[in-house]
Amino acid sequence: MSNGKSPRIIAVIPAFNESGKTAAVVRQMPKDIVQETLVVDDGSTDETPREVKAAGATVFSHESRKGIGIAIRTGLEYALKNNYDIAVVMAGNGKDKPAEIGKLVKPIIGNECDFVQGSRYITGGEKGKMPLHRLLFTQWYSCAVRLATGRRVTDATNGFRAYKTQVVSDPRINLYQDWLTEPLEYYLLLKVLKLGYRVKEVPVSKIYPQNTSYRQYTKVRPFVGWWLRLKPLFYLTFGIKK
């Protein structure tokens, strides 16, 4: 970054009942790039908190489940409070590769952009074995985001992202609206696109186990869960929310 100092980077991982998965993600974290790994335990009732702490993560636990949006917000609050320059947000169930964090943060370190969106759909990305309905929804949603913002984006639902922490301090971005318990990350991407921040996509992998049923690798319910994630697009496009 421009001050000549190496940026302080934190990985934020929201997790709810991901025993055996999130700890594996923590152990794979590139410690030469990431100074701290924060797992935001969203009220887990299994061994997730104990496992990730043993694996070397900092753990912040919600007393009860509040939603992935609130978990991410908690992680961003921690990043700002502890003076981190860049926050990387990634899945706690093993769908994102910690080894790809280096290329995710590189454009920010090089001052090419403020916000990096991981994409499985551009050259070099990998989408794995995706269910057809999810493939169609992710591509349709990205098209809708392009139409709504006039900005190029190919994988707007991908939660593997990196951004300057100062972005979330922008007073025009309000992460404390009560409807953002689930769709906060969708809202944040739409806001940075609409506000003119420099956004770049980089190719990443999304790992979908070959012999695992859909319900076992995601907690997002088809159709019902998707509507929650469509809210920001609908609300911001029609000026219902800010």
Low-confidence regions: none
Q: Count up the domains.
A: 1
Which outline best applies?
globular
Write down the overall mean pLDDT: 93
Helical residues, percent: 25-40%
The CATH architecture name reads Alpha-Beta Complex
Q: Kindly report the spatial arrangement of strands forming the biggest sheet.
A: 3-2-1-4-6-5-7
Separate helix tally: 8
- CATH-derived topology: Spore Coat Polysaccharide Biosynthesis Protein SpsA, Chain A
The fraction of residues in strands falls at 5-15%
Largest sheet: 7 strands, mixed
**Content-based structural category:** alpha/beta
CATH homolog superfamily: Spore Coat Polysaccharide Biosynthesis Protein SpsA, Chain A
Number of strands: 7
- Quaternary: single chain
Rg: 17 Å
Element-level helix/strand string: EHEHEHEHEHEHEHH
Q: Which CATH class is shown?
A: Alpha Beta
User: Could you tell me how far the N terminus lies from the C terminus, measured between alpha carbons in angstroms?
Assistant: 30 Å
Q: Describe it for me?
A:
This protein is α/β, with parallel strands linked by helices and about 240 residues long. It is built from 8 helices and 7 strands. The chain has helices at about 20-25, 50-55, 70-80, 100-110, 130-150, 185-195, 215, 225-235; strands at about 10-15, 35-40, 60, 85-90, 115-120, 160-165, 200-205. It has a 7-stranded mixed β-sheet with strand order 3-2-1-4-6-5-7, sandwiched between helices. It is globular, with a radius of gyration of 17 Å.
